[in-house]
Design goal:
A hairpin with a 2-residue loop joins strand 3 (36-44) and strand 4. The termini are far apart. The strands form 2 sheets. Strands 1-2-3-4 form a 4-stranded antiparallel beta sheet, covered by helices on one side. The chain has helices at 5-10, 61-76, 81-97, 100-111, 117-130, 132-135, 145-157, 161-180, 210-221, 227-239, 243-247, 280-293, 314-321, 333-344, 350-356, 375-393; strands at 18-23, 26-30, 36-44, 47-55, 254-255, 260-263, 274-277. It is α+β, with helices and mostly antiparallel strands. It has 3 domains: 5-91, Double Stranded RNA Binding Domain; 100-192, Orthogonal Bundle (DNA polymerase, domain 1), CATH 1.10.150.130; 210-393, Intergrase catalytic core (hpI Integrase, Chain A, Orthogonal Bundle). The protein is 48% helix and 10% strand. The longest helix has 20 residues, at 161-180. It is built from 16 helices and 7 strands.
Length: 403
């Protein structure tokens, strides 16, 4: 006789394990402790075997009968249900091990040691926020271009077009890593070329008019905020490095005898060491600051802890406090200021300027210049620039000079 829902629900445990049969090999096993398991008894290759179909009441009588039917179909096709279950479980485990998130984190771990801390943090945060929630659990070999595009569209739709493009680039790097390690056959990211709207080019706000530069320099000299921030403000136009490179400067990198600042590759955008010749004005600022922060690691330590560099917002906030608007001047603006005036007003050779900006500059034979290329000329340029800024600061007539 077949079982009923009422009989299954009301059966009480006894002193020994009891079995209630439903037919077709399906039965309910009731343990003395009260547990109820669905089992299927079947024969395969002449041997009697048993297959667990779940626990009651999580698996109802109806569900157990459906599982019995599925197992019987496998047997009819010559497949052992027990072995099939093992194979499915192994496949799921393998799929999980080869998911996009697992491989992306492996790729990140292998590459992040060569990146700056901030760069690495931005990449993993971007993946965790915008990619993993949607395709992180998917087997990487099964992800198609349309699925990747749908994920990137979520980023685009919140107005973060540049972030969408960067996420697209990172996903491509992960797919190529999966191909190299034998866990995917192709990278679908190139199929999305042109699918995302282009990023609107925006330039960092910068003051490049010499007269206005003089006003800015005088305002910075009169800055009433923290002394460390004031020194960073005064040094920024003299060295025109990127804001992150400036605020993370360490005293071990400063050579007062040679008047040089040697920035290691790990902190540079181009991952190449960079040498900044220091003008006499820059050395004077650094010596003055050394008396205050020279015992610590950072030239510009944070306001709350000497063990960390100043906030990446410190210089920007100081500019705003002095009345320079967001669309007027930025931390990056000191680089554009130097590039424009050195070229258009002072007539310095563009390759000297670009090299000092730590841009990718190559010689006529296509070889990348090293950190000491044209060092003598760059020393002269940096001193020329510092002297010119002094003239602007005192309001002297702006007269083009020769490099």
């Amino acid at each position: 006789m077949s079982l009923t829902d009422t009989a299954v629900k009301n059966v009480k445990p006894g002193d020994k394990t009891a079995r209630l049969f439903d037919g077709g090999g399906l039965y309910l096993e009731v343990a003395p402790a009260g547990g109820k398991w669905w089992r299927l008894k079947y024969r395969y290759d002449g041997k009697e075997k048993r297959l667990s179909l779940g626990v009651y009441p999580d698996v109802s009588l109806k569900d157990a009968r459906q599982r019995r039917s599925d197992a019987r179909k496998l047997l009819a096709d010559g497949v052992d249900p027990s072995e099939n279950r093992k194979a499915v479980k192994a496949a799921k485990t393998e799929r999980g091990a080869n998911s996009f998130e697992v491989i992306a984190r492996e790729w990140f771990a292998k590459n992040s040691a060569t990146w700056s801390e901030n760069h690495g943090s931005r990449i993993i945060r971007r993946l965790e926020r915008d990619i993993f929630p949607w395709i992180g659990g998917r087997p990487i070999a099964e992800i198609k271009a349309q699925e990747l595009l749908a994920t990137l569209r979520r980023v685009e739709e919140r107005g973060a077009v540049e972030t969408a493009h960067r996420a697209h680039q990172n996903c491509g790097q992960v797919f190529r890593y999966a191909i190299a390690t034998g866990r995917a056959e192709r990278d679908p990211s190139p199929d999305l070329k042109g699918a995302l709207p282009p990023v609107k080019q925006s330039h960092h706000a910068a003051i490049t008019d010499p007269k206005a530069v003089g006003d800015l320099l005088r305002a910075m000299d009169g800055y009433q905020g923290a002394f460390v921030t004031k020194c960073a403000l005064r040094l920024a136009p003299l060295v025109f490095v990127r804001p992150g490179e400036l605020r993370r400067a360490e005293w071990t990198e400063i050579d007062f005898d040679k008047a040089e600042w040697n920035i290691p590759a790990a902190r540079m955008k181009m991952r190449e060491p960079h040498l900044v010749p220091l003008s006499t004005q820059a050395v004077e600022i650094l010596r003055e600051l050394h008396a205050l922060t020279g015992d610590g690691r950072y030239v510009f330590p944070g306001a709350r802890s000497n063990g960390r560099p100043m906030s990446d917002n410190a210089v920007l906030a100081a500019l705003r406090r002095m009345g320079f608007a967001k669309d007027e001047m930025s931390g990056h603006g000191f680089r554009a200021m130097a590039r424009t005036i050195l070229d258009e007003v002072l007539g310095v050779r563009p390759d000297f300027i670009e090299h000092q900006l730590a841009h990718a500059v190559r010689d006529p034979n296509g070889r990348a210049y090293n950190r000491t290329a044209h060092l003598a000329e760059r020393r002269k340029m940096m001193q020329l620039w510092a002297d010119y800024l002094d003239k602007l600061k005192v309001g002297a007539e702006v007269i083009p000079l020769c490099a």
